[in-house]
């Protein structure tokens, strides 16, 4: 059980920017070639995980924007700036 907690602590979700930048690096390395099949597969898998993290961040941002655009939920007029 302690091991699972340690693994979770070391695999914290990166920020959108961190995941995007690392994903860019992964793609560049794959496109450059010269890797073994095993290295390529490992990079591909990492890229898939990073892409999922980016998508999760973007979905959260979309949800927050949609909620903000709907305005107050209790029917009050928006507060003036």
Architecture overview:
- The chain has 81 residues and is mostly helical.
- It is built from three helices and no strands.
What topology does this entry show?
Elements: H1 2-10, H2 16-32, H3 37-70
**Major beta sheet summary:** none
Q: Count all strands and give the number.
A: 0
Going by helix content, strand content and strand pairing, the class is: mainly alpha
SS summary, helix count: 3
Low-confidence stretches: none
Features of the shown structure:
3 helices; mainly alpha; 74% helix; 81 residues; 0% strand; single chain
Short description:
By secondary structure, the protein is mainly α. It has three helices and no strands.
């Amino acid at each position: 059980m302690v091991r699972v907690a340690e693994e979770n602590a070391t695999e914290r979700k990166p920020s959108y920017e961190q995941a995007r930048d690392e994903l860019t690096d992964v793609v560049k390395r794959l496109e450059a070639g010269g890797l073994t099949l095993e290295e390529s597969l490992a990079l591909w898998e990492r890229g898939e995980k990073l892409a999922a993290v980016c998508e999760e961040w973007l979905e959260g941002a979309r949800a927050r924007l949609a909620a903000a655009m709907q305005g107050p939920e209790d029917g009050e007029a928006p507060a003036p700036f």
